[in-house]
Specification:
- The complex is a heterodimer of chains A (about 375) and B (about 325).
- Chain A is α+β, with helices and mostly antiparallel strands.
- Helix content of chain A is about 60%, strand content about 10%.
- Chain A folds into three domains: about 45 residues; about 60 residues, no CATH class; about 220 residues, Orthogonal Bundle (MetI-like fold), CATH 1.10.3720.10.
- The longest helix of chain A has about 30 residues.
- The longest helix of chain B has about 35 residues.
- The chains are: A alpha+beta (about 375), B mainly alpha (about 325).
Chain lengths: ~375, ~325
Amino acid sequence: MATTTIDSTTTSLEGRRTQKRAVNWRGIWGKVIATTVALILLFLFLVPLAYMVLTSLKSMDQMTEPGAPIYPAVPETWTDPETEKVYPVYIVPMENGRTEDLALVKKGRKQSEFIDPKDPAAGPIQWEGSWRALDRPWEWSPTWQNYVDAWTQINFGRLFLNTVAIAAIGIVGTLLSCIVVAYGFSRFRFPGRNALFTLLIATIFLPSAVTIVPTFAFFNLIGWVGTWLPLTVPHFFANAYNVFLLRQYFMTIPMEIDEAAAMDGASPLRILMSIIVPMSTPVIVAVALFHLVFAWNDFFAPLIYLSTKPDLQPIAVGLSRFNGIYGTNPPLIQAAALMASLLPIILFFMSQRVFMQGVVVTGVEK
Amino acid sequence: MDATADIAQHTKPVGAGASPKRSSKLARREATWGYIFISPWLLGFLLFTLLPTIATIIFTFTDMKLEFAKASFIGFANYELLFRDSQVWSSLLVTIKFGLISLPVAIFAPLLLGLLMNSKNLFGKPFFRTGFYFPYIIPFVAAIFVWAAMLNPETGWINMFLERIGIQNPPNWVNDTTWVYPALVIIGIWGIGNAFLINLASLQGVPTELYDAAKIDGAGAWSTFWNVTFPMISPVIFYNLILVVVGLFQYFTVPLVLNQGTGAPGGATMFYNLYLYKNFFVFQNMAYGATLAWFLFLIILATTMVLFWTQRFWVYYPTGDRK
């Protein structure tokens, strides 16, 4: 079965043919419009990432201050070198029509006293008007402390290790089970194979709500609630997506290779281990990555099975608990969200080709 | 189930090269190995799918709280309760209301994005493809936090922008009983990555000859889409549709994370599955939870069966020998 490649360059022979003749203005405008629309959409789609990064670096004071800039900043202040006292700086409109950044030293209802930080020796400047109506100049100042606070308060190190451990056990289980099941479905003929494979695929559409209540009751009965077992053991029993993905790949490996090995007396298990698996590295990597992303995302199962054990919870659950406690502190929340997203993002960009190819195979080839 | 039957049809070529006159002993050995290799899944299917599904049905006829051993059979009492329970119907209504707003976005946004990415006019396709896909891998809970903060009426960028362009009273989003549904759609928008990628790949799989033929026949852009592109990608759209519908009926993670499942504002986010979760997990009433789950399953089953039936009117399968 031919694998659909994602990166096509079907940019049509048409385009090239017309380009040869003359400058195709209509074609150029089409390109400009399509690319501009895509750029605007992508900007709107990704602008929350900028919000996440910038907010995670803001101080809580800045969040509540009206007129604060969207980048992390603090209002400027001036410290009197003699008295060591700190004064706020305001943007003051002067009589000559210009504005100047001046430090407010004495507040008054109708008249205030300012000092020019650039020339403090010149003495106080009297200014008529309400200082409350003045804006303050802001200077770029990221609050890195948010990350330190988020890390310690959420116990991020522990959550991270929990998630990695749960994901790693799950990856081992998924790979072991899905590889052998996919091998069975792709290489052996047995009665009922097509019906069973259809049944396997049909489980993709099965609503999980229908099994969750007895499954929870069962795990509760055997004392698994409050442990990692309900999050790891079921992955040792294969799942439709990954079996399908692996089977599609195995079917592209010629049967003749297996048959030759079988002639030489290799057992089916040996053929799997020494021929099929080594030839399927890309798809095995993809399955491992899918499972890691799945485990990193998994929210509902850890929520119900580990609700009483905060020390065992993975990142997704810890993060949502954090929102309940620090919901009024957006910088801390965004810092925690960013830290939680970092590993999947890095892994994705390291292996995006393998990753997106896998998504396509499970979605399109039916 | 047509779509799945289609998958099975393609399984035939395996081992087609082998001689048909193999001894039955060899065939039996091959079958044994086959069953051995698929046994992890068979066992898993039995343990985690088939038995729990049957157990769900049994639970609905009991008064089980947490332990089945202490339960006794009470006939149809749970079903009577379900039909009298106004929360069931209001939460179902909430689910359907949100579903009707969310469904078009979940189907058309990835499709339109796929069409744009497949346009011969677009520069830098790999760049855009990665850009639109990658937020999908951001952990769901983190994505909820980011978008919910964007929609914050006081500090969020969305209302800041709306005020900047002159909109006097921007929506109160998640705090407003009407605007909360569009807000939930926006919060989930990064989730379209998968469907987008699948749509794009199927668009790229449409043979170029078909487009050339349409051009020779003098078909315009719309006519080409409707008569060539759409039929060719309709199986993939159908697949996405089923997954989206099944997912929407079970929707509740976002409200659960957003407001700890209180249903705020004013019960507008008390989704059916959230109510189910509360009954079985928070109130630990397994029997009633199972009844709600079974009822939801029947609704989903009926809906997907209707959708499978509509396939004959709009989904095109190239094999053509479908009844």
